[in-house]
Amino acid sequence: MSSLSLTARQEQLLRYIEDSLAKRGYGPTLQELAQALRISSLQGVKDHLAALERKGYVRRAAGKRRAIEVVKPVTPPEGVVPILGKVAAGQPVLAAENQEGALRFDPALLSDGQHFALRVQGDSMVGAGIEDGDYVIVRQQEHALAGDIVIALLGEEVTVKQLRKRGKTLQLEAANAAYAPIPLSGQPPAPRILGKVVGLYRRLDGRL
What we know:
This protein is an alpha+beta fold. Helices cover 18% and strands 29% of the residues. The chain is built from three helices and eleven strands, in the order H-H-H-E-E-E-E-E-E-E-E-E-E-E. The relative contact order is 0.13. The model has no long low-confidence stretch (mean pLDDT 83).
C-alpha cells in the first residue's frame, strides 16, 4: 500500500481513531466519528475511512464495526521522535508523509508537547555546538523567546538558527560569522517558527 499525503480532515479522523484505540482499546463507530468530526453523513465518514485505507494508514476487518487497525500512526508513540527530512510548504511539520525514520528516548528525557527531529546540514550553527550531521530534537511550537535556538520555515526550506532581538526587531542569527542574519519581518514570505530546539543527538560512528 502506498503512503500518500492526508487532507486535514483525514488527519483529524486518523488522530481520533488513534486516541480511541489508546484510551478504550477499540475503535470508534461510524456514528461516533461523524459526531466527533461534525460530519453530517455516515457516507462522508466511510469515504474518509476508505481514503485512509487506500493510502495505507489503517486496515479494517470486513463486517466488524469497531475492528480497525492503525498501520501507520500520525501520532508517534511515547518516547519516539520522528525524523523529518523535509517539510512541504503549507503542510503541518508533523505530517506523517514527511517522516524518514525515528529516534527513541526514555520519555522522561522529553519535555511536554510534540517533538520531531531534523538532521542538520551545513556549518551555520557550529558556534553553538551543532555540527553537520547532528540531529536536533525540536519541540513543536509557533512562538519562542529571544535567545532560543529554533527551527524556522523559509519558503519551502527549513533552517536552524538562534532567535535574537536587535533593537525593536527580531531576527534569526547563525552561530557562524560567515552567514548573514535573517529578519523575521519585511520580506515575503515571512519566516515561520516551527519549534524550539530542546536537545541534540549525535552518533559518534556516523550512523543512525
